[in-house]
Amino acid sequence: MRALPMSERAFVAERIDETALTAIAKKLAGAVGEGGVIHLVGPLGAGKTTFARALLTTLGVGSRVKSPTYSLIESYTAGLLGVQHLDLYRIADAEEVEWLGLRDFAEPQLWLIEWPERAQGAIPTADMVVSLSHAGMVRDARLDALTPRGSAWLESLASAG
Q1: For residue 124, is pLDDT > 70?
Q2: 75 phi and psi, to 5 degrees?
Q3: CATH of 11-159, one of 2.60.40.10, 3.40.50.300, 3.40.640.10, 3.40.50.2020
Q4: Which of 6, 73, 83, 119 has its CA 20 to 30 A from that of 63?
Protein backbone atom coordinates (compact mmCIF):
# COMPACT_ATOMS: atom_id res chain seq x y z
CA MET A 1 0.00 0.00 0.00
CA ARG A 2 1.21 3.46 -0.81
CA ALA A 3 -0.40 6.10 1.37
CA LEU A 4 0.25 9.66 0.33
CA PRO A 5 0.84 12.39 2.92
CA MET A 6 -2.41 13.36 4.57
CA SER A 7 -3.48 16.95 4.44
CA GLU A 8 -5.98 18.51 6.79
CA ARG A 9 -8.73 17.73 4.29
CA ALA A 10 -7.78 14.49 2.49
CA PHE A 11 -6.25 11.06 2.89
CA VAL A 12 -5.19 9.11 -0.20
CA ALA A 13 -4.14 5.47 -0.43
CA GLU A 14 -3.17 4.16 -3.85
CA ARG A 15 -2.96 0.62 -5.18
CA ILE A 16 -4.35 -1.04 -2.08
CA ASP A 17 -5.91 -4.46 -1.75
CA GLU A 18 -9.17 -5.33 0.00
CA THR A 19 -7.36 -6.02 3.28
CA ALA A 20 -5.84 -2.53 3.30
CA LEU A 21 -9.20 -0.98 2.39
CA THR A 22 -10.92 -2.70 5.31
CA ALA A 23 -8.08 -1.63 7.62
CA ILE A 24 -8.73 2.02 6.71
CA ALA A 25 -12.46 1.58 7.41
CA LYS A 26 -11.73 -0.10 10.76
CA LYS A 27 -9.45 2.76 11.81
CA LEU A 28 -12.08 5.31 10.77
CA ALA A 29 -14.67 3.49 12.89
CA GLY A 30 -12.87 4.69 16.01
CA ALA A 31 -13.69 8.29 15.09
CA VAL A 32 -17.34 8.18 14.02
CA GLY A 33 -18.95 7.17 17.31
CA GLU A 34 -20.95 10.39 17.65
CA GLY A 35 -22.49 10.11 14.20
CA GLY A 36 -22.21 12.03 10.98
CA VAL A 37 -22.49 11.44 7.26
CA ILE A 38 -20.18 9.51 4.94
CA HIS A 39 -20.86 9.40 1.22
CA LEU A 40 -19.32 6.41 -0.57
CA VAL A 41 -18.69 6.99 -4.28
CA GLY A 42 -17.18 4.91 -7.02
CA PRO A 43 -18.12 2.48 -9.79
CA LEU A 44 -19.67 -0.94 -9.28
CA GLY A 45 -17.26 -3.28 -7.54
CA ALA A 46 -14.94 -0.56 -6.24
CA GLY A 47 -15.46 -1.57 -2.60
CA LYS A 48 -18.15 0.74 -1.22
CA THR A 49 -20.05 -2.03 0.54
CA THR A 50 -16.80 -3.68 1.65
CA PHE A 51 -15.75 -0.41 3.26
CA ALA A 52 -19.15 0.06 4.94
CA ARG A 53 -19.23 -3.55 6.17
CA ALA A 54 -15.76 -3.24 7.76
CA LEU A 55 -16.67 0.04 9.47
CA LEU A 56 -20.00 -1.32 10.77
CA THR A 57 -18.48 -4.57 11.99
CA THR A 58 -15.80 -2.64 13.87
CA LEU A 59 -18.48 -0.45 15.45
CA GLY A 60 -19.99 -3.67 16.78
CA VAL A 61 -23.43 -3.41 15.22
CA GLY A 62 -24.06 -6.89 16.53
CA SER A 63 -25.74 -8.36 13.48
CA ARG A 64 -24.87 -9.62 10.05
CA VAL A 65 -24.10 -6.61 7.86
CA LYS A 66 -26.12 -6.96 4.66
CA SER A 67 -25.83 -4.95 1.50
CA PRO A 68 -28.81 -2.61 1.14
CA THR A 69 -28.81 -2.99 -2.65
CA TYR A 70 -32.37 -4.30 -2.78
CA SER A 71 -33.81 -2.93 0.45
CA LEU A 72 -32.25 0.53 -0.17
CA ILE A 73 -31.66 0.99 3.58
CA GLU A 74 -30.41 -1.22 6.40
CA SER A 75 -30.64 0.09 9.97
CA TYR A 76 -28.32 -0.90 12.81
CA THR A 77 -27.52 0.11 16.36
CA ALA A 78 -24.00 0.49 17.70
CA GLY A 79 -24.34 1.31 21.38
CA LEU A 80 -26.45 4.49 21.53
CA LEU A 81 -25.66 5.33 17.92
CA GLY A 82 -28.17 4.60 15.18
CA VAL A 83 -26.57 3.65 11.87
CA GLN A 84 -28.27 3.93 8.49
CA HIS A 85 -26.60 2.26 5.51
CA LEU A 86 -28.16 3.29 2.21
CA ASP A 87 -27.50 2.03 -1.31
CA LEU A 88 -29.15 4.34 -3.81
CA TYR A 89 -27.97 2.61 -6.99
CA ARG A 90 -31.52 1.72 -8.01
CA ILE A 91 -32.86 5.25 -7.43
CA ALA A 92 -33.75 7.00 -10.68
CA ASP A 93 -34.74 10.34 -9.15
CA ALA A 94 -33.94 12.04 -5.84
CA GLU A 95 -37.68 12.36 -5.11
CA GLU A 96 -37.88 8.57 -4.75
CA VAL A 97 -35.84 8.84 -1.54
CA GLU A 98 -38.63 10.72 0.22
CA TRP A 99 -40.60 7.54 0.96
CA LEU A 100 -37.64 6.16 2.99
CA GLY A 101 -38.52 8.63 5.77
CA LEU A 102 -34.95 9.78 6.36
CA ARG A 103 -36.12 12.90 8.18
CA ASP A 104 -37.77 10.77 10.85
CA PHE A 105 -34.53 9.31 12.23
CA ALA A 106 -33.53 10.77 15.59
CA GLU A 107 -29.98 11.84 16.37
CA PRO A 108 -27.34 10.66 16.81
CA GLN A 109 -27.09 8.80 13.52
CA LEU A 110 -24.22 7.65 11.39
CA TRP A 111 -25.16 7.70 7.72
CA LEU A 112 -23.26 5.57 5.20
CA ILE A 113 -24.63 6.40 1.78
CA GLU A 114 -23.60 4.56 -1.37
CA TRP A 115 -24.37 6.23 -4.71
CA PRO A 116 -25.20 9.61 -3.11
CA GLU A 117 -25.05 11.36 -6.48
CA ARG A 118 -28.41 9.76 -7.33
CA ALA A 119 -30.22 11.66 -4.56
CA GLN A 120 -28.49 15.00 -4.06
CA GLY A 121 -30.66 17.36 -2.05
CA ALA A 122 -32.74 14.51 -0.61
CA ILE A 123 -30.06 13.00 1.64
CA PRO A 124 -27.93 14.35 4.49
CA THR A 125 -24.94 16.46 3.44
CA ALA A 126 -21.60 14.66 3.73
CA ASP A 127 -19.03 15.26 6.44
CA MET A 128 -16.70 13.01 4.46
CA VAL A 129 -16.63 11.59 0.96
CA VAL A 130 -14.91 8.25 0.46
CA SER A 131 -14.06 7.91 -3.23
CA LEU A 132 -13.03 4.47 -4.43
CA SER A 133 -11.78 3.28 -7.79
CA HIS A 134 -10.43 -0.04 -8.92
CA ALA A 135 -8.24 -1.68 -11.50
CA GLY A 136 -8.38 -5.43 -11.18
CA MET A 137 -7.58 -6.57 -7.67
CA VAL A 138 -6.23 -3.21 -6.43
CA ARG A 139 -8.04 -0.03 -5.49
CA ASP A 140 -7.38 3.61 -4.88
CA ALA A 141 -9.10 5.28 -1.94
CA ARG A 142 -9.47 8.97 -1.22
CA LEU A 143 -11.14 10.28 1.92
CA ASP A 144 -12.09 13.96 1.69
CA ALA A 145 -13.25 15.94 4.72
CA LEU A 146 -15.96 18.46 3.88
CA THR A 147 -16.76 19.71 7.38
CA PRO A 148 -14.93 20.24 10.67
CA ARG A 149 -16.35 16.89 11.81
CA GLY A 150 -14.86 15.22 8.74
CA SER A 151 -11.51 16.90 9.43
CA ALA A 152 -11.59 15.55 12.99
CA TRP A 153 -12.22 12.08 11.58
CA LEU A 154 -9.17 12.43 9.34
CA GLU A 155 -7.05 13.56 12.30
CA SER A 156 -8.19 10.49 14.20
CA LEU A 157 -7.34 8.29 11.23
CA ALA A 158 -3.85 9.78 11.13
CA SER A 159 -3.43 9.18 14.87
CA ALA A 160 -4.45 5.54 14.41
CA GLY A 161 -1.49 5.02 12.10
Answers
A1: yes
A2: -110, 140
A3: 3.40.50.300
A4: 119
Q: What are the backbone angles phi and psi of residue 116, rounded to the nearest 5°? A: -65, -25
> Which DSSP symbol is given to 47?
S
Question: In terms of Cα–Cα distance, which of 105, 85, 2, 74 is closest to 40?
Answer: 85
Residue 142 and residue 10 in contact, taking contact as beta carbons nearer than 8 Å: yes
Supply angle C-alpha 66, 159, 5, rounded to 5.
95
Rg (CA), the chain: 15
- At 55, the amino acid letter reads L
More confident residue, 75 or 160: 75
Distance CA 66, CA 138 (A): 23
**CA–CA distance, 23 with 42 (Å, rounded to integer):** 18
